[in-house]
Amino acid sequence: MKSQSMLAALGVYGSSLGALFAVAGCTPNNSGSTLAACRVLPAAAAAQPRWAGTVFTIVMENKSRHEILGSRSAPYVNQLAAANAIAGGYHDNFVHPSEANYLWMVAGENFGVLDDADPAAHHLESTSHVVDQIERAGLTWKAYQESMGSPCALTSHGRYAAKHDPFVYFNDVNGWDGTAFHTSPRCTDHVVDYSQLDADLANHAVPDYVFITPNLDHDMHDGSVADGDAWLSREIPKLLASDAFQRGGVLFLLWDEGGGTPAGDDPPFLAISPHAKAGFVSQADYDTSSYLKTVQSMLGVDALPCESDASSVETMDELFSVPLVAQASKTGA
Fold it and tell me: If we measure between CA atoms, which residue out of 306, 302, 288 comes closest to residue 126?
């Protein structure tokens, strides 16, 4: 009962915060839009202490906290929320629509992008995004994209939306040479259809960093809250049962932006982990940069190379019962 009351109260809080952040009329709040030069990464990164298990992320779509937390249409998400930690003061970085938020999740800025166009419209030259950092540190990564079909799909089709697959926008991943795309194993081996995840789980081949995007029916974009909750109830238990999670991993379950028209800035954010503070609700002023810096801390790579003042961004330490980088890495680093 206490957990239900907490979630209901948080839903009211989220509704009020959404109203506070909403911009009058039909114009979304894009006051955070950023196009900044990123620091050049070193050729190889020194090994740093890092989180012991895999860092998983699942991104859902276009809902405010009050639409999910405490909702009877999302029993599974609320079960997870009651048993883990909630970032109750989390907000996006005031950029819209979806594509801008996904880019921010992996690079710490939106590169001035404020639309949902496919990669052919946006050729991002940054070589300082999170997968560049991961590879330089000798770690592994994959993006599992539901309904993508063939790997490294650069155009939206069917229920796959490229705007929800941030990695395919970077030239050093998609192979853009100024005139054409030249896909290589860097993309085809790492940006794969979601169906590959079952095989990787079975073979104990889950990488250090995993980014999962459900399709448009299952991420609550086109489907209902109940549809998305049912999908999560089928898929998340597989992750939680894996050794990649059990040895001290984390699953960040978040929504890209709030609901409504214009889109709100108050999406739900859950941290699910053996080390999450059960039933804890933070009211800290966290944003997407906080999420990315937390991921980078867990992976043992440098913080926010596209942010001019990375030290001003807080990591989400208070969601966890252990320090972010105190665990011994599985590689001994």
Answer: 306
- Give the C-alpha separation, 25 to 283, whole Å: 28
| Angstrom distance (rounded) from CA 116 to CA 271 | 27
Of 295, 267, 260, which Cα lies nearest the Cα of 92? 267
Say yes or no: domain 2-19+48-319 is CATH 3.40.720.10. Answer: yes
Residue among 266, 214, 221, 292 nearest 34 (CA): 292
Q: What's this model's pTM, rounded to 2 decimal places? A: 0.91
- The DSSP secondary structure of 251-296, one letter per residue, reads EEEEESS--TTTT-S---EEEESTTB-TTEEE-----HHHHHHHHH
Domain spans in the chain, listed from the N-terminal domain onward: 2-19+48-319
| 129 phi and psi angles, rounded to 5 deg | -85, 175
* Residue pLDDT, tens place only, 18-51: 444 444 456 889 999 999 999 999 877 766 778 8
